[in-house]
Every structure is written in C-alpha cells, then in structure tokens.
Design brief:
The structure holds two protein chains of two kinds. Chain A is an all-beta fold. Chain A is about 0% helix and about 50% strand. In chain A, strand 7 and strand 8 form a beta hairpin. The radius of gyration of chain A is 14 Å and the shape is globular. By secondary structure, chain B is mainly β. Helix content of chain B is about 5%, strand content about 50%. In chain B, a hairpin with a 5-residue loop joins strand 5 and strand 6. Chain B is globular. The model of chain B has no long low-confidence stretch (mean pLDDT about 90). The chains are: A mainly beta, B mainly beta. At the A-B interface, strand 5 and strand 6 of A face strand 5, strand 9 and strand 10 of B.
Chain lengths: ~120, ~120
C-alpha cells in the first residue's frame, strides 16, 4: 500500500532559522510523482514543487530547497532563513500510480504545521 | 493558467438543509475533478472522483447518497451535501488535473481555494 509519513506534527522556529520538513513515502511503483504543497491560514493549497521518481536531482528555488533520496524513500523540504510568512501547514503528497479516469490520485501526508516566530 | 475556483467560499446552514458547492476550472477543461474534505488540523481526505458525463467514483466510507456529485460540463463539478448535519461541518476542497502534452502536466492537480461549511 502507498503511504506518506510526515512525522513532524508541528515545528516552531525563530525567524531566520533554517528548518527542514521531513517526508517519507512508501510505494511499490517505479514511476510516481512527489509533491509539496503549502496551506496558509486562508486554507488554499499552494503548489510548491513536483518531482518525478526518475529525477533525483535536488532543487533550489530561492529560500526553498528539496532533497529527494530514493534510497531512503524521502523527499525533504528545507526553508532557509525562515520568515513569518512561511508559517503554514505543509503537505507532502505522492501520486498513486493507478490512473483513475485518466489521471492519478494523490495520497497526502498528515501535514507539518510550521510556526515561524518573529 | 490552471486556475480552479470554488463557490461559495464559506456557507453556514441549518441542520437538515442541503448545500451545493461549485468547482470550476477557469482557463482549462477538466474531464476529471477531485473532491476532498479536511477537518480541522487534519489532512485532506479524498471523498470522490468526479467524471464529466458519468457517475462519480466514491472512496470507501463516503456516502454517495449524502454527497451528490454532478459533473455536467468540462469546467464545472458540483458537490451537494444533502440533509447536512453538524458532523458534516468541514473544509471542502476540489482539484483538477492540468492539461498538456506531457504527463507531468496532467499528473499535477490544481486546487480550488476551498469552501468552509458550518452546519448549525
């Protein structure tokens, strides 16, 4: 069965600290996608990144970076020099490799609530 | 591109009434849309897959007679919560896969802003 685990329920950091959000997944599929979404207090999910299972290159986008390691089935997300505006719930998701009506379903982790204190 | 809207953004209703939530893909067509429910401080749980022109596919444990889904056009899916009760109070989110020639485009879901339902 496919599963996404975000063991950190809540993290609090002081502004300008670096913080890493962990995501561990389980799947028997060889082809899959991994995603990170941000959900601010407004509730709307904001797409952050998509990673194909064949692409293990790490990615950096501004203060955000992602470390994908297939050997440990992890897809961790690091925010460098955190800011108060980064406060939100972050979800990691795995696409199910079984197309339903032409597209994949997502399996979400339980989310990590990040609080950045001024 | 790939914008999904929902209406209303919030609704308060009395117990026993029915509530309709709309999900629209604004700048693309969506033959498939997904409906999620999120309780406070919990993750998103997939309720059903909405298919244009055919019946929705419900996840195990979701009452299809209570949560009616209609996907009448390529840009609109509706979720009707029938005879709503306080335990149906939740945040309802829809999503639609993108369009394009590449698999990553159609395998990325774009989410609506959500509808907060409160049943008194």
């Amino acid at each position: 069965a496919q599963k996404v685990t975000q063991a950190q329920t809540e993290i609090s950091v002081v502004e300008k600290e670096d913080v890493t959000l962990d995501c561990v997944y389980e799947t028997r599929d060889t082809t899959y996608y991994l995603f990170w979404y941000k959900q601010p207090p407004s509730g709307e999910l904001v797409f952050l990144i998509r990673r194909n299972s064949f692409d293990e290159q790490n990615e950096i986008s501004g203060r955000y970076s992602w470390n994908f390691q297939k050997s440990t089935s992890s897809f961790n997300f690091t925010i460098t020099a955190s800011q108060v505006v980064d406060s939100a719930v972050y979800f990691c998701a795995l696409s199910e490799n079984k197309r339903t009506s032409g597209t994949y379903k997502y399996i979400f982790g339980t989310g990590t609530r990040l609080k950045v204190l001024a | 591109g790939a914008v999904v809207s929902q209406h209303p953004s919030w609704v308060i209703c009395k117990s026993g009434t029915s509530v309709k939530i709309e999900c629209r893909s604004l700048d693309f067509q969506a033959t498939t849309m997904f409906w999620y429910r999120q309780f406070p401080k919990q993750s998103l749980m997939l309720m059903a897959t909405s298919n244009e022109g055919s019946k929705a596919t419900y996840e195990q444990g979701v009452e299809k007679d209570k949560f009616l889904i209609n996907h009448a056009s390529l840009t609109l899916s509706t979720l009707t919560v029938t005879s709503a009760h306080p335990e149906d109070s939740s945040f309802y989110i829809c999503s639609a896969p993108g369009q394009g020639a590449y698999s990553w485009e159609i395998d990325t879901q774009y989410f609506g802003p959500g509808t907060r339902l409160t049943v008194l």
